[in-house]
Design goal:
The complex is a heterodimer of chains A (572) and B (307).
Chain A: H1 6-11, H2 29-33, H3 38-66, H4 77-113, H5 121-143, H6 157-161, H7 166-193, H8 206-237, H9 251-285, H10 292-305, H11 321-349, H12 358-381, H13 383-389, H14 393-423, H15 429-455, H16 470-500, E1 541-542, E2 549-550, H17 559-571
Antiparallel strand pairs in A: 1-2
Helix pairs in contact in A: 3-4, 3-5, 3-16, 4-5, 4-7, 4-8, 4-9, 4-14, 5-7, 7-8, 8-9, 8-10, 9-11, 9-12, 9-14, 10-11, 11-12, 12-14, 12-15, 14-15, 15-16
Chain B: H1 3-13, H2 30-65, H3 67-73, H4 79-104, H5 108-138, H6 149-159, H7 174-184, H8 213-218, H9 225-270, H10 280-304
Helix pairs in contact in B: 2-3, 2-9, 2-10, 3-9, 4-5, 4-10, 5-9, 7-9, 9-10
Classes of the chains: A mainly alpha (572), B mainly alpha (307).
Chain lengths: 572, 307
């Protein structure tokens, strides 16, 4: 956007040449590395997060191959510990936490709110580089020796006894925390202060509500875990005594502080995905989200409840029975707002004109898998059953249903939903559906057996297991490969679409939302003219008896329609 | 309308402001920009509160668990220096507040001077902290591998003989009592000349740090019950000093960040940098500095004034 003015861009729709947008405005490497455009930063995040996902996935593949035989295949015990730790650390800190907010949130949040950018664009870029530095540190620690503590870094093993690269890995997680704090701060300010004229809180898309709730959790939770991890490093490297039971320290204090963040972190991961699901379901059912206010408040309720349930990770520690009782009851309460969401989505689809696009298939996957993940969570928040199930594969299956079935599915749904907006190209719908189905089937084949084997008593993080569990593990490994193929497919057809995809109009899904008002890919400053919002979020309405529900004409398919609509409005 | 002209229009329309302020592209008008900065700063401070919050929680937990240890160990902290530091920080807070006031009135020289005074106070604070830290380290109270509570206690009681007729609080002597008993059981012996306590320490049967496996079998130290109990007490004291150093250390890092920021601001004021044409950045610096101050206001009584 150095020379051309916006006026030229506005006119260029009738030229043959592609109009200037954020992708082709400048194309030097420097213009990407030093960009403060939220859309370009989102794309850079997408690349980085995908690398992390691939590496974490490779570690997962190694674990699964290793577990096909009761005595292990090719890893030593020590190497096995390091591989599952690498899988956990990379996936949690470098994929699940940043995936939806930093990629999709970064890209669409300002568009949805009708803003030109986030409130602090340079902070946004800093957040990306801090994330990248953390990723490099984490990978350096993992490749240069590895860590064997598990991603939870429980003391005193992590602070005193482990001989692996604990300090560097913890510092990586610490630095990554700052990256999410920066993003969260940016989102909070943007949502508070950058909404387009007329866009009140209750006219915001629910994705923005989800981003707000997530940011609040990030701002309140992340510093706590950051300082806790820093204490572990201090204890480990300087020999201070804080959590070490040898000198009277309380290792359970570490667990309290760790889970004070890391339980809400589950909602940092899943709330943004739920936000995506709102958008996808509304656009594919062509209906207003049923009970919009309830869904918005349930988002905030999850954020609040999320902070008072951490103790359910410690039912099997020295935590008092009465405290456990309270945490158990509170944990059950979180199920209520989650269920509100699921029921409202189901009701939104009821009598809507549901289109089975690939992103909708991912959203269906989310609904099914997240529901299973959430309901099995209730087994774990009951004191008695949890004593039996603690640290078994049941827990592993439960949180994978929430994390992969929830967050990863939501991320893919959102990526497919907004891909035409991000790149201006349509991807292969058929391959998209194939991928969605493969992920769903592969996922269930991988993790349903783990519920069974966990219930039968197989502890998590064990390298060897009794031969009678082998059948379940082989099923799980088979499923993991189907899942892996399902996850790899998008990398191919999405990249392929960049060059060969059909041009997407402004609004290929005929959806409602400010992001569909601007061109695809959007201009560097998002909007030619900043919109003034006079309508509700998800303003779909019924078109006669047979045509199903549609978006109003103010969200036209392409620029042609945009001008027709503008003329129409003038005449009216 | 092009963005450039939008920006110009916004600058023109803000003519009633005393000084022209630059509007970033993503904002509609200066009010929105300023409000965004303020919301951002307060959100950041909330994060900072949570940062220290975890440490305060650890402090509280161990204070409840080991109150007597806290009571005894806190005597090693110098209340006089702590009070002096509190006064230094409080006066720096006043000058920071005045700097914001003059920034609002556009008096850049006064702002620079007041910030310089604030900065000076911050340096003074760090200087006093340095004196405190060095004396702790010399006393053997840095809670690393060389933490030596027996030595510290012995030196302390050599220099602080209770005045005749005064009763010492027995709860504040848990470790000292065990150390005395251990000494009677010939587990520890010290020679502490008044002039130079550093050089002539003799410890017997006290150093049980194991350096090798062979070493471990060669030196099996049979501890007397008193010695065992003293070790437990010393461990608790190590926790107190770990928390002391972590909390004051994190606070000190914040003071240093404050010094860096203030120096930058002074330079910007002196060079009439456009970033400080408006008072808002200075106000946010002031908010940060008050936060650093408030943390110390909590730390001082919690660490130095336990009773």
């Amino acid at each position: 956007m150095s020379t051309a003015t916006l006026k030229d861009v506005g006119k260029s729709h009738d030229n043959v040449k592609e109009p200037l947008n954020y992708l082709n405005a400048t194309n030097t490497i420097k213009s990407w590395l030093f960009t403060v455009d939220h859309k370009r930063i989102a794309i850079m995040y997408l690349v980085a997060v995908s690398v992390a996902f691939l590496l974490g996935g490779l570690a997962a593949g190694m674990i699964r191959v290793e577990l096909t035989v009761p005595k292990g295949q090719f890893l030593t015990n020590d190497a096995y510990n390091k591989v599952f730790t690498a899988h956990g650390v990379v996936m949690i800190f470098f994929f699940l936490i940043p995936a939806v907010p930093a990629v999709l949130g970064n890209f669409v949040l300002p568009l949805m709110l009708g803003a030109r950018d986030l409130a602090f664009p340079r902070l946004n870029l800093l957040s990306f580089y801090v994330y990248s530095a953390a990723l490099v540190m984490g990978l350096a620690a993992i490749i240069g020796g590895g860590v064997d503590t598990g991603w939870t870094f429980y003391t005193p093993y992590s602070s005193v006894y482990s001989n692996s690269n604990v300090a560097l890995t913890i510092m990586a997680a610490f630095v990554a925390g700052f990256s999410s704090i920066f993003t969260g701060l940016n989102f909070i300010v943007t949502i508070h202060k950058m909404r387009a004229p007329g866009m009140t809180w209750f006219k915001m898309p629910l994705f923005a509500w989800a981003m707000y709730a997530t940011s609040v959790i990030i701002m309140l939770g992340t510093p706590v875990v950051a300082i806790t991890l820093a204490l572990v490093v201090v204890e480990r490297t300087l020999g201070f005594g804080i959590f070490s039971p040898e000198i009277g320290g309380d290792p359970v204090l570490f667990q309290h502080l760790f889970w004070f963040y890391s339980h809400p972190a589950v909602y940092i991961m899943v709330l943004p995905a739920m936000g995506v699901i709102n958008e996808v379901i509304a656009a594919n059912s062509k209906k207003r989200i049923f009970g919009y206010e309830f869904v918005a408040f349930s988002t905030m309720a999850i954020a609040v409840f999320g902070f008072i349930v951490w103790g359910h990770h410690m039912f099997a520690t020295s935590q008092s029975m009465y405290l456990g009782l309270v945490f158990s009851v509170l944990s059950f309460l979180v199920a209520v707002p989650s269920a509100v969401k699921i029921f409202n989505w189901a009701t939104t689809m009821y009598k809507g004109s549901v289109e089975l696009t690939s992103h909708m298939l991912y959203a269906f996957g989310f609904l099914g898998l997240f529901t299973i993940g959430g309901l099995t969570g209730l087994y774990l928040s009951s004191l008695a059953t949890d004593i039996h199930l603690t640290a078994t594969y049941f827990v592993v299956a439960h949180f994978h249903y929430v994390m992969v079935g929830g967050t990863a599915m939501g991320f893919l749904a959102g990526l497919h939903f907004w891909w035409p907006k991000m790149t201006g190209r349509m991807y292969s719908e058929i391959w998209g559906k194939v991928s969605a189905v493969l992920v769903f089937l592969g996922f269930n084949l991988t993790f349903l057996p783990q519920f069974v084997v966990g219930y039968l008593g197989m502890p998590r993080r064990y390298h060897f297991y009794p031969p009678e569990f082998q059948l379940w593990h082989v099923m799980s490994t088979g499923g993991a490969f189907v899942l892996g193929v399902g996850f790899l497919l998008p990398a191919f057809y999405l990249v392929h679409s960049l060059k060969h995809g059909e041009k997407a109009g402004n609004n290929p899904w005929r959806a409602v939302g400010l992001e569909w008002l601007t061109m695809s890919p959007p201009d560097t400053h998002n909007f030619h003219e900043l919109p003034v919002v006079t309508w509700e979020a998800y303003e779909y309405f019924q078109e006669s008896h047979h045509g199903g529900d549609v978006a109003p004409s103010r969200f036209p398919f392409d620029d042609e329609e945009l001008h027709l609509a503008a003329d129409e409005e003038v005449h009216v | 309308m092009s963005l450039k002209s939008l920006e110009n229009a916004a600058v023109a329309s803000s003519g009633h402001h005393m000084i022209e302020q630059k509007l970033s592209v993503q904002f509609e008008d200066l009010d929105q920009q300023n409000e965004s900065y303020i919301v951002g700063m307060w959100s950041f401070l909330v994060t900072e509160v949570m940062f220290f919050g975890a440490l305060f929680l650890a402090y509280t937990l161990y204070r409840v668990m080991y109150f007597n240890t806290y009571l005894e160990a806190h005597h090693f902290l110098d209340v006089k220096l702590g009070t002096l530091n509190t006064l230094v920080l409080l006066s720096s807070s006043l000058s920071a507040a005045l700097a914001v006031f003059y920034a609002q009135h556009g008096q850049r020289i006064k702002v620079a001077l007041l910030l310089a005074f604030t900065c000076l106070c911050a340096f003074g604070f760090m200087g006093i902290k340095y004196v405190e830290y060095t004396s702790k380290i010399n006393e053997g109270l840095l809670p690393d591998q060389n933490f030596n509570y027996a030595k510290a206690l012995t030196v302390f009681h050599e220099h602080h003989k209770p005045a005749a007729g005064t009763e010492e609080n027995p709860r504040a002597n848990v470790a000292w009592e065990q150390l005395e008993l251990a000494r009677k059981a010939n587990q520890v012996s010290f020679v502490v000349p008044k002039d130079n306590p550093e050089t002539t320490f003799v410890e017997s049967g006290f150093d049980n740090r194991v350096t090798s496996a062979a070493d471990a079998t060669a030196r099996v130290v049979v501890k007397s019950p008193a010695r065992e109990r003293f070790d437990i007490e010393a461990g608790k004291a190590k926790i107190f000093f770990s928390i002391y150093f972590c909390m004051t250390g994190l606070h000190g890092i914040h003071v240093i960040i404050g010094i860096i920021c203030m120096t930058t601001f002074i330079l910007m004021y002196l060079t009439k940098h456009p970033a400080v044409d408006d008072y808002l950045p200075t106000e946010m610096l002031g908010l940060y500095w008050h936060f650093v101050d408030i943390v110390w206001i909590f730390l001082f009584p919690l660490m130095y004034l336990i009773s």
